[in-house]
Structure formats: structure tokens, C-alpha cells
Amino acid sequence: MTTIMKPGEIEPPVPKAPWLRLPERETLFARRGERCKTLAKGHVLEEYLLFMAKVAEAQQEALNSYGQTALPDAALLHLCRQHGMPPLARQNWQRDASWHGALREIIGMVRDAAKPATKSSLDRLLAEGGPAFEAMADRLLAGDYAGIDLAAAPLVGAALQVYWMHLVTTLGRDAFERSAAPNLCPVCASPPLTSIVHHDGIEKGQRYLHCSLCASEWHMVRIKCTTCQSTKDIAYHGIAGDAGAIKAETCDECQSYLKIMSMEHDPNLEPTVDDLASLPLDILMDKAGFMRSSASFFLIPAEEVVA
Amino acid sequence: MQVTRRQFCKICAAGLGGSSLGVMGYSPDEVLAQAHAFKLSRATETRSNCPYCSVSCGVLIYSLGDNAKNAKSEIIHLEGDPDNPVNRGTLCPKGAGLLDMIQSPNRLNYPEVREPGSNEWKRISWDQAFTRIAAHMKADRDTNFVTENSTGLKVNRWPTVGFLASSSAFNEVGYISHKILRGLGVVTIDTQARI
């Protein structure tokens, strides 16, 4: 008798790429610092990138020595898994004060390398202490930048990144489930910083969205708007004549763009650094009439548009 | 939770001085000058199917061009679609060479006919081609149509024509093909996707 196979009985030839990639705690910030230094040579933003290298190195050290902190309990994790909600949502998660130590440590390590304008802002922030840290963190995480001290804010963002990365890597991958909102991080509900197309192993050619806060990466199919999910009229804008590793993926439906980085073109790409280093592309995209859908702590605009 | 809020940032030439970069004490002048010297290029990626065999692998087609009326867009690259569940980004050697087929100078771009007894191909219009095919089909159907079988049962068959459908046809195309062909009485229908 002939056996009739049912759907799902044929083993796939290779396992499927994971839908979520957590950041590598031991190396992520150190790699970011290295990438800053590599790109800084001869770059128009050389000074700033070298300062960012110092920040990334300080972040790695602060993360390596991160102490005890409260984690979401099993009941919350279970509830979030059931409903596809991010358990460490940036605006809802009750932060404890453990990240204040990371912020003090980072500022201590980068203060000497900072410009005078930044130095005085950092001194003021340190003098104001915990309540000022929390107030600025609330504003940053809400995307509400009006009137905050933009010279100190990137360092607060850096400390929050360390805190969130500590939480994420301590909980581990199994704590998280696909989010009901595919354009937001399933870990912390942040908008993505960039898309990144991987080049190696089973992830080859797959597009992931890189979280702007916790550096987790979640999968999304290619040729799709990361903001409004449209698959119509998606285009890729790049700087004519460059290597083509970084493009702006635009959507005519919602007039927004998100950068998409191809590791097949450059395996050393680091989302945060390469986003800063490709600032000329942002300027050209603004001229072309597209809105940037991602927010970086390290380049906070003077005005923000909510649509 | 504000999970559906869409937040846009404006990073523009005029606003860089007031952004965190400028406030921290770094001058945006050089980066602005560089941006001024650069030009944008526009490309598209389009999902399609490999037309060669019944596996119908998903492909991504990369084209250059800004979709402007006068500018001709050009296919520059082609690769397996990593999101396609059938081939997951892979292509066979023949499929990987699709770009050469697309750009081949030997491609047929218009209908041609070689009349019986002639050894020459003659260019004809699409209208002429469709009319000619329809006329041949009708003549064949009128000659060979079978309305009843040997026991007198009504069958309405057109047994002298067969149809092979494309492996790239999707469900709706399959439905329409089936409706038209069965309506004409065609019995022999097959699709390359079965082979």
C-alpha cells in the first residue's frame, strides 16, 4: 500500500532561522567600540565617533560589573507570553535604581574625553542625582525630547542600554514570545534602530530588526515597510557610487524610511555605529521628503514629529 | 501601553546644530558639506518566481531606476528569496543564471510565424497572433468535437487539443485556466507543477 504523507511530515533540509536573536553580552559593546575606532579614521564625524568609542567601552565595563537587579516574575512573563506583549516594555517596566550606578560609572569613564559643553552638562546631571536621572530616562524612553539637556541625554541612553541588556541576557531567549506588534521589539517594545540582513549560516539573507534599546534582533520578511507593514512601493535609496552596504528602505504609503544594512556587503557592520556614520544618508533622505522611523540615543534631533 | 504609536524623527540639515551632536560640541559642518556632495540612487527589490521548473523557487529581482517615465529601469541582480519557504534563499545553477536569460539578446520579444512550407520566420503583431491561434483552434474544434459517445451519452469532448499550464501560475490563474478549457471541452489538461 502507498503511504500518503501528511503536511509537516517531510523534515526540512535545514532548521529555520531563529525569530529572535539576543545580544551577545560579553562582546556587543566592545565590538561597537572597535567599530567606532575603525570608522573614525578620516570620517567627517571622526571626533564624535572616537568619543562614542569611549562610551561603548565604558558601557561594556559597566555591563561586565553589573550587580543584582529585580527581574520580572514568572507570572508577568507568562502573561506577556500569552498575549504577545513585551515583558520589559520601555515605558512600563518598573526600573529599579541599579542603573544609576552604571550611569555614574559611564560618565566617570568618558568625562575626560568629552567636549567642554558636554562636561558641564554631565557635571550638572551628576549633581542633581537620582531623581534627575529618572526624569530624563522617562522622557527619553517616551521619545519626548522637548526641552531636555541633549548633551547629557545620550549618556543616560547609554546607561539604559546597559541596564536593558543586563535584563535581557539574564532572562534568556525562552522568556520572550513574538510580539503582537511586529514593528516593535518583542523584548522591550522599542522601535527598531535599523534593519540588518545577515550573511552567515541559517540566517544568511534573513532580515532582522535591531532594537534601539536592548540590541535584540527580531525577524521580519524582506521588502516590507517596518513601520506600516505595507509591501507596496518599497524602494531602496543609497548613496550613488558607494559600496551599497547601507540603504534606506522607503515606503511610499507612509513616507517613512529605515536604514537596512547588508552584512553580505560588509560583515563588520555594527548597527549603532554604522547608523551614526551614515548620517549623510539621513540628510539626503530628509531632502527627498522621507521621515526617519527610528530613534537613536546617540543622535537626538532638536524636534520630533509624531504622526 | 503605547505599542501602536508611530514615532518619526526629523534629522535634517538645518536641525543638526540643535541636535544632540551639536549640543555636545561637535560641529556638523563637515558632514553637511559631504551630504551636499553626494547623490541618491534608487533601486527596487521585487519578489518573483523562477520560471524554469516545477519547484517554482522564489527569487528576488533587484532593479535600478527611479520609475520615472523617461528612465528605463534595469535589472542588475537576482538571487534566491530567503523568505520563500520552498527554496529559502537557494537557487540551482540554472536558476542562478536567470539574469543571463532575462538579458539574453536571443530572447523573443514579439510573435513570429513560420508558414507551412516556408523556412522563414515572419514578424506579426500580437493581434494577428491571437487571431491566428483562435482560428486554428476553432477549425480543429469544429472538425473533431465529440458530442456523444458510442452509447449515445452526451459528452461534449474536444479530444484533439491538450493544455500544459505553467508552474508559476497561482491559484486564481489555475481556476481561470480550468474554467476556460473545460468550457471548451478540453479533456487533456496538465500543469508543469505536477511533473
Tell me briefly what this model is.
Chain A has 307 residues and is an alpha+beta fold. Chain A contains 9 helices and 9 strands. By secondary structure, chain B is an alpha+beta fold.
- Second rung of CATH, namely the architecture of the largest domain in chain B: Single Sheet
State the major sheet of chain B: 3 strands, antiparallel
Report the total helices of chain A. Answer: 9
Query: What's the gyration radius of chain A in Å?
Result: 20 Å
Task: Please render the helix and strand layout as text.
The complex is a heterodimer of chains A (about 300) and B (about 200).
Chain A: E1 20-21, H1 28-40, H2 46-64, H3 74-83, H4 98-110, H5 116-128, H6 130-142, H7 153-171, E2 192-197, E3 207-211, E4 217-219, E5 234-239, E6 246-251, E7 256-262, H8 271-277, H9 279-287, E8 291-292, E9 304-306
Parallel strand pairs in A: 2-7, 7-8
Antiparallel strand pairs in A: 1-4, 2-3, 3-4, 5-6, 6-7
Helix pairs in contact in A: 1-2, 1-8, 2-4, 2-7, 4-7, 6-7
Chain B: E1 7-9, H1 20-23, H2 29-37, E2 40-49, E3 58-64, E4 74-80, H3 93-96, H4 98-102, E5 112-113, E6 122-123, H5 126-144, E7 146-148, E8 154-165, H6 171-184, E9 186-191
Parallel strand pairs in B: 8-9
Antiparallel strand pairs in B: 2-3, 3-4, 5-6, 7-8
Describe this entry's structure for a reader:
The complex is a heterodimer of chains A (307) and B (195). Chain A has helices spanning 28-40, 46-64, 74-83, 98-110, 116-128, 130-142, 153-171, 271-277, 279-287; strands at 20-21, 192-197, 207-211, 217-219, 234-239, 246-251, 256-262, 291-292, 304-306. Chain A is of the alpha+beta class. In chain A, strands 1, 2, 3, 4, 5, 6, 7 and 8 form an eight-stranded mixed β-sheet that branches. In chain A, helix 2 packs across helix 7 (153-171). Chain B is an alpha+beta fold. Chain B folds into three domains: 9-38, no CATH class; 43-102, Single Sheet (N-terminal domain of TfIIb); 145-194, no CATH class. Helix content of chain B is 28%, strand content 27%. Chain B is built from six helices and nine strands. Mean pLDDT of chain B is 89; it is low at 1-5. At the A-B interface, helix 2, helix 5, strand 5, helix 9 and strand 8 of A face strand 1, helix 1, helix 2 and strand 2 of B. Strand 5 of chain A pairs antiparallel with strand 2 (40-49) of chain B, so a sheet runs across the interface.
